[in-house]
Amino acid sequence: VFQKWVNREISNFDYLIQLNTMAGRTYNDLAQYPVFPWILRDYTSEELDLNNPAVFRDLSKPIGVVNEKNAKTVKEKYENFEDPLGMIDKFHYGTHYSNAAGVMHYLIRVEPFTTLHIQLQSGRFDCADRQFHSIPATWQALMDNPNDVKELIPEFFYFPEFLENQNGFNLGQLQMSKEVVNDVVLPKWAHSPEDFIYKHRKALESEYVSAHLHEWIDLIFGYKQRGPAAVEALNVFY
């Protein structure tokens, strides 16, 4: 598979799906759901220029420290962590880049994930401010908060329906702006959910991502998962 990918006989999307499968990740298990990277950092421009390297996320860094400001906090947390019982090893992040709650968070508008989310929240929707309501806002939250380290799921590259509240669920309204949470708010450069998926997939297959995707793969599936390389890359999880 690797050789095929290097020779560009299979797409970045297909390669990531196959890597996830080989790593034991599957759509049948929310706790081991396929994981895909955030690949862009520009969610505010009117036009998305895929020839400009500045619109892409730095794929060599874990999402928690893509914003340089967070690196110091994350490093200190690791260095100062001491488990009095000596049971827990030092870590940079107390949560994970992929977990069941995160998958339900993204897919809340689509069954069976809606029902699973409601069960998780003891029979009702979580408060609106914690819902997935906007792609630009979700990215901003990642940049502001080193404790939020969610990567993406494959649906961001092929499934426009999950961005629409087609079932008309009452997801509440945001506290500050009183805005009703309905369809997911898209980046300015996307004119519809289909347009977002089309451009996002194009970004995934772009020259920049093809050249740098292996750096992210090292973090998630490769030699930077644990040990000294993980410590150095600020990539140690609880």
Give structural attributes.
238 residues; 9 helices; mainly alpha
Q: Any overview of this molecule?
A:
It is a single chain. The protein has 238 residues and is mainly α. The protein has a single domain (1-233), classed as Neurobeachin, Chain: A, domain 1, CATH 1.10.1540. It is 36% helix and 0% strand. It is built from nine helices and no strands. Helix 4 crosses helix 5 (113-120). It starts with a helix and ends in a 6-residue tail after the last helix.
> What is the fold named in CATH at topology level?
Neurobeachin, Chain: A, domain 1
| Helix/strand order, N-terminal first | HHHHHHHHH
Q: Helical proportion?
A: 25-40%
- The chain-level structural class is mainly alpha
What is the percentage of strand-forming residues?
Answer: under 5%
| pLDDT < 50 stretches | none
CATH class: Mainly Alpha
| Oligomeric state of this protein | single chain
The CATH architecture name reads Orthogonal Bundle
Outline, from the CA principal axes? Answer: globular
Q: Mind summarizing the main beta sheet?
A: none
Overall pLDDT, averaged? 95
| CATH homology-level superfamily | BEACH domain
Number of helices: 9
The total beta strand count reads 0
| Termini Cα gap | 31 Å
Number of domains: 1
Q: What does the radius of gyration come to?
A: 18 Å
